[in-house]
Amino acid sequence: MNKRPLKVTDLDFSAGCLKTLKLNNIEYLDELAQYSLLDLANFEGMSRPTLIQIIKVLKDNGIALQGEVM
Hints:
Radius of gyration: 11 Å
Strand content: under 5%
Number of helices: 3
Number of strands: 0
Oligomer: single chain
Order of helices and strands: HHH
Distance between the termini: 22 Å
Number of domains: 1
């Protein structure tokens, strides 16, 4: 059974976090798995609180960043 991709707009992200994700053309949560923590930290508009929020949501949904072991 295929899991339906989670849209970032359907998750409990803050408005600022959603703005940063949109600015970097991220529409689905699993798209973030192709990036490393350093990549995310260098996203346009990324702040430390936004990065922490993204990492928490990824972990809550069982998604690891590139090079990260879950």
